[in-house]
Amino acid sequence: MNLVTGGAGYIGSHFIKAFLDVFQDDNIIAVDNLTEGHASALSFSNRIHFEQEDIGNTEAMVRIFRKYDIKTIIHFAASCYVGDSQINPAKYFHNNCIQTLNMFKAMEICGIRQILFSSTCATYGNPQYLPLNEVHPQQPINVYGSTKLMTEQALRAYSIAQGWSYVALRYFNASGADESGIIGESHDPETHLIPLILKTALGKRKALQIFGNDYETPDGTCIRDYIHVNDLASAHIAALSYLRNHPRGESFNLGTTNGSSVLEVINMCKKVTGLDIPVEYVPKRPGDPPVLVANADKARELLGWKTSYDMQSIVQTAWHWEQNRRY
Ligand SMILES: NC(=O)c1ccc[n+]([C@@H]2O[C@H](COP(=O)([O-])OP(=O)(O)OC[C@H]3O[C@@H](n4cnc5c(N)ncnc54)[C@H](O)[C@@H]3O)[C@@H](O)[C@H]2O)c1
Question: What angle do helix axes 193-201 and 311-323 make, rounded to 10 degrees?
Fold first, then answer.
């Protein structure tokens, strides 16, 4: 049986939906402490067995692993706000590193040796070349990125010492929502560009703040690689079978390589919504590189993965969710 940590969160819930759609006879276990997630994000199927628990509670995790005879972990649970991580480093090292190690202890006790891990492009730091591939040096410039790199290093150590097989998936900018409209992105506070633009379009925010317009990019605004959350979900499904056939550790970038600037994303949102989006230019944020885009050839070649969504469909699905959000 597979167990998803952080299953009530944005990407975890989309993975669960995609998994249950592909494997019609399977059930799945979701663990979440609901600090950030939403129980309603898991209410769409009775094949989801939800356990409200903190992954750092080793004893409880051992009980859950044994109860469901867990063989594989898909590990999404984490604290994920870059800005917050700079202000509250202890919270991030505790939740993302120590609590994860506490869960690894439970995995050891139960003999579980297969894990998919949600890593991030934030482990690379400032790009030395573009697009970023997996062998680019990992020199994170924020606490959040450091905690994810430390977890990758812990996985590497477990793989060498105890034969764990793991896949670290380094996502670029997750975006969009499931077409069904029953699950979507709901963070508080929201820090991601597309939901912020759409909230502005709906008049829930006065203006969209753009951090800097004199970057060395064609229109002066930052370029990022937006990847649809269901494309991330399909990569996890491909990685699950890769994990079972390749008993060691591997990492893959998940992105499209087609970067979009902040202004390009705003223009797409204007086109999809037909609404005006007031903007306000504010100073650059320290540590924001002008361009971050993925080279995802390795995932395409070794996982047989390809993306299905472009920027227009990312915005359309996010807009559908934003107008009818259930949580
Ligand atoms: N959203 C992105 O663009 C992005 C990019 C790169 C990597 N990631 C990684 O992907 C993963 C999922 O991100 P998301 O956007 O879905 O975040 P999210 O906050 O929506 O989901 C994370 C979930 O984990 C739960 N959680 C946190 N700590 C927990 C703990 N100790 N025990 C149990 N549950 C806990 C939260 O309640 C939440 O439901 C994270 O690991 C994040 O670092 C996200």
Answer: 50
